Amino acid sequence: MSNVMETIKKKAALLGKNIVLPEGEDSRVVEAAAAAVKEGVAKITLLGNPEEIKANNPNVDLSGVTVIDPKTSPKHEEYATLLYELRKSKGMTIEEARQIAYDNTYFGVLMLKAGDVDGLVSGACHSTANTLRPGLQIVKTAPGVPLVSSYFLMIAPECGNQYCEDGCYIYADCGLEQNPDPDKLAYIAVASAKSAAAIANIEPRVALLSHSTKGSAKHADVDKVTAAVAKAKELAPELNIDGELQADAAIVPSVAKSKAPGSAVAGHANVLIFPDLDAGNIAYKLTERLGGFAAIGPVCQGFAKPINDLSRGCKAEDIVGTIAITVLQSEIQW
After folding, report:
1. What is the radius of gyration, based on Cα positions, of the chain?
2. Are residues 195 and 245 both part of a single domain?
3. Do residues 61 and 40 share a domain?
4. How far apart are alpha carbons 53 and 286 in whole angstroms?
5. What is the reported pLDDT for 131?
6. What is the CATH classification number for the domain harbouring 287?
7. Which of left, alpha, beta for 217 (phi over 0: left; psi -120 to 50: alpha)?
8. What are the CB-based long-range contacts (under 8 Å, 24+) for 126-133?
9. Digit-coded pLDDT (tens) for 154-172
10. Mean pLDDT throughout 191-201?
11. Is residue 299 part of a domain?
């Protein structure tokens, strides 16, 4: 795990980006803020009451961290006005905007929209909806991108894995999109390939997975995947994409030779696109628990500016890793 993540952190450190962490009330987030600054991964803006944060975390050195309280910030009115302008067509009043802008997550997303920070990481003690709803309302998706999806960076154990040629996989979508239609599945595939190159620094070989390989089964679910493959190739003809492939045909060379001869992806895939959330979520958890892989994510992709949702069971080191990924995402052109 360390080599892949250390490479990500080193790349992030070169960019000097500022990431906002809205959850100053969570000790893991406070610890991660200090660690990220100490390691040079990013500049950090931590939201919350400075006195309470110091009192609750007396042993954490926050000397390099900028701490802002939305309730006393001189920027509050500016951000409230920005929110009002963005949401007045939905019926929001300036008074409502002022009240909402006191919320740490909304304040952080407004900082991001205004260009005062480069990314946001939240979710350690708030739900996915609490993190993503402000993002979708304020930052929105990147131009031409129809949806926000997610992926897990699955990092092989230190002992390695015989099928994991690059030391990691990208699994998508395992956290957000419940049952994507062919067009959505295609966009997830293309976005995940971009994430693989920009974040994991691997040349993407994208497999759209199914219970069928190259017509071995007939079903509407298979048709969905084959239509997604065609759409993905149309969207990004330069990418190495193939499907439909069963999981073993995607990653095991000997099986690929039998089931999908001539495929440039089969047997060597490093970006695995699952047909629905059930398959993706089950697969990443089995890979993590039975295969010993580290699961970093879910990492969001497709926002106009990077916003990431943490697992509520995360550790401080997981948050630092997500901060580093968020830094690199700020350079991606979706």
Report:
1. 21
2. yes
3. yes
4. 37
5. 87
6. 3.40.50.10750
7. beta
8. 126/23, 128/175, 128/309, 130/105, 131/105, 131/307, 131/309, 131/310, 132/300, 132/307, 132/309
9. 999 987 788 898 899 999 9
10. 94
11. no
Q: How far apart are CA 212 and CA 259, in angstroms?
A: 10
Residue 2's pLDDT is 60
Amino acid at 220: A
**In this predicted structure, what is the pLDDT of residue 331?**
92
pTM: 0.90
User: Do 59 and 163 fall within a single domain?
Assistant: no
Q: Give the whole-angstrom CA distance, residue 149 versus residue 181.
A: 13
Q: Is 25 left (phi over 0), alpha (psi -120 to 50) or beta?
A: alpha
β-pairing verdict for 271-273 and 168-172: parallel
Residue 334 lies in a domain: no
**Number of structural domains, the chain?**
2
**Exposure string for 125-161, b = 16+ CB within 10 A, e = fewer:** bbebebbbebbebbbbbbeebebbbbbbbbbbeeeeb
pLDDT at 1: 44
Digit-coded pLDDT (tens) for 246-258: 999 999 999 999 9
Domain at 139, CATH number: 3.40.50.10950
What's the pLDDT at 334? 79
Q: 274 and 173 in contact (C-beta within 8 Å)?
A: yes
Residue 192 sits in which domain range?
A: 149-294
Per the CB < 8 A criterion, the answer to whether 82 and 114 are in contact is: yes
Statement to judge: residues 15 and 138 lie in one domain: yes
pLDDT of residue 163: 86
What average pLDDT does range 200-220 have in this prediction? 95
**Cα separation of 90 and 33, whole Å?**
35
